[in-house]
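Lay summary. Proteins are chains of building blocks that fold into shapes, and those shapes determine what they do. In this project we predict the shape from the chain. Here is one chain we studied, written as its sequence of building blocks.
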Amino acid sequence: MASLPSWSPPILIAMHLQPGISRAYAARLNGLSHFASKEAESGDKLQKGHVFVAPGGMHMRVISRLGALELECYSGERVHHVAPSADVLFDSIVKETPGSAIGVLLTGIGQDGAQGLLNMRRTGSTTIGQDKDSCLVYGMPKVAKDIGAVQFELPLNQIAAKITELISP
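And here is the predicted shape, written in a compact code that computers can read:
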């Protein structure tokens, strides 16, 4: 993230973290990058140069309220045995801003995020999956690649440059 320009669109992170850890993770990101990073709360408005980390144990989705995009964080049934779920986040992006986002799926166990990433790609958004060699666990990105959800498969150290290329005017 430190390699992304400060004028980047909002960055939304759904990591499979336990409650409490997500807040510490967001605080750590805030200290390591030029982005304003925080654990997401319902009602947070999406803003350029901001990073929102889904609260551990809760889903996070994008909603439109009064013409603005904001976040909703809620306790709900686990998806693929996890909360937060990347599929929940990605599917909300498809619903609210079809074809206008970049979805990225990084290392992880299981299949969470694969179907949501495919839905993003099908509606015109750009999709990126981390490649096998740079993954600690090539689970989630592999499932996404296998179902055709990944448009660009890249090593972790090349993803920020690709995003910058895609968002540059």
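What the prediction tells us: The chain has a mean pLDDT of 97.
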